Amino acid sequence: MAQRLHQITAQGLEELRKEKEHILTVEIEANKAAIQEARALGDLSENAEYSAAKEIQSQLNNRLAEIEDILKNHEIIAEEWYTIRYDELGVQKSIQLVGVLEADPEENKISKESPIGKAIQGCKVGETVYFTSGSGKKISVTIVEKGKIK
């Protein structure tokens, strides 16, 4: 079975590399120190500090494995932005289309796999498209501007 490629922007890939480096150089070292300090407290079977430090160690290792998988199996996608107008409301919003891994609606980073992301990809300025929101509501938007981030 073929490995699925993670879609990610060049900026998102760079952020992942930085996160990996931070985990390796800062967080893991701090966690090693925490484990050593907790061991020094004695009986490990009833040592909450030790258990907590080992849980953090597990989380860090899991995140590193996840990042490694993305770094090995990724596809760079174009960093596209759109200014859209929600026709019913008359409200305009600028959004950036990104891969699922980078989606952050609060930062106006919308997944290409989301209903709106799928609907607006490849559309031209002035074009009106329709999509169904996660709540089942049919929404129309008009593309006001679009471009690629360099």
Describe this structure in words.
The chain is elongated and about 70 Å long. The chain has a five-stranded mixed sheet with strand order 5-4-3-7-6. A two-stranded parallel sheet has the order 1-2. The two termini are 34 Å apart. It is built from three helices and seven strands. With 150 residues, it is α/β, with parallel strands linked by helices. Helix 1 packs antiparallel against helix 2 (48-72). It has two domains: 6-76, Transcription elongation factor, GreA/GreB, N-terminal domain (Helix Hairpins, Orthogonal Bundle); 80-148, Chitinase A, domain 3 (Roll), CATH 3.10.50. Strand 6 and strand 7 (138-148) form a beta hairpin.
Global Rg: 22 Å
Distance between the termini: 34 Å
Instruction: Give a count of the beta strands, DSSP E runs of length 2 or more.
Output: 7
Global structural class: alpha/beta
What top-tier CATH class of the largest domain fits best? Mainly Alpha
Total tally of structural domains:
2
